[in-house]
Design brief:
It comes from Peptostreptococcus equinus. It holds the Pfam family DUF4256. This protein has two domains: 77 residues, no CATH class; 102 residues, no CATH class. 34% of the residues lie in helices and 22% in strands. It contains seven helices and eight strands. A hairpin with a 4-residue loop joins strand 1 and strand 2. Helix 1 runs antiparallel to helix 2. 35% of the residues are buried.
Length: 189
């Protein structure tokens, strides 16, 4: 995870990865029924650096797929769709300030630093609920979500999961970390 931001793909690897994204896209049309893959593929082929960011999402266990097309800003939005919180992004406290504050048993990093290294945004509550409306995610895990500054200043952070066929949003101290808690991200292409 330390050098995730250094991942670079050659032309052949980019083409292979775009094919994998196309396959996932086609297998999950219920997530994005109004989006035409040809348009997405054209956008990806013109943005090598964004393909590498999506690849980092994949390599950390996110299984990225399209969640929405933002017509107003002309952006395709990729999101982590792994059934559980991405396995390569767990056991992290909320942000760098929380990580620095921990004196004992520090995790290897924090969610915000890892998201920055990958090049993605952490899902906020609205995006997390949108994700959960498209399937069943985080039944055994949980995911940090972007927390309002007013709550963060008080030392709290938000996370979500799904239990009993319902999405729950909870709070925890930002210094906490658990083997089953990671974070999910999104990227606008």
């Amino acid at each position: 995870m330390k050098n995730i931001e250094e991942i670079k793909l050659d032309n052949k690897s980019i083409k292979e990865f775009i094919k994998l994204l196309e396959l996932r896209f086609l297998e999950n049309m219920h997530r994005h029924p109004q989006i035409d893959w040809v348009n997405v593929e054209n956008r990806l082929e013109k943005n090598r650096n964004l393909v590498e960011i999506i690849y980092r999402m994949e390599k950390t266990g996110g299984e990225p797929d399209l969640i929405e097309y933002d017509e107003h800003n002309d952006k395709y939005i990729f999101c982590d769709f792994s059934i559980e919180s991405p396995s390569g992004r767990r056991s992290l406290c909320y942000d760098l300030q929380a990580w620095e504050k921990r004196k004992k048993n520090k995790p290897i990093s924090d969610a915000h630093t890892v998201a920055e290294k990958i090049g993605i945004e952490i899902l906020d509550e609205n995006w997390y609920r949108k994700l959960q409306s498209l399937g069943d995610f985080d039944f055994k895990s949980s995911s940090w979500i972007e927390t309002p500054n007013s709550m963060r200043k008080l030392g709290g952070g938000l996370f979500g999961d799904k239990r009993y066929n319902r999405t729950f949003i909870y709070h925890n101290g930002v210094e906490s970390y658990y083997a089953s808690r990671g974070f999910r991200g999104l990227l606008r292409v």
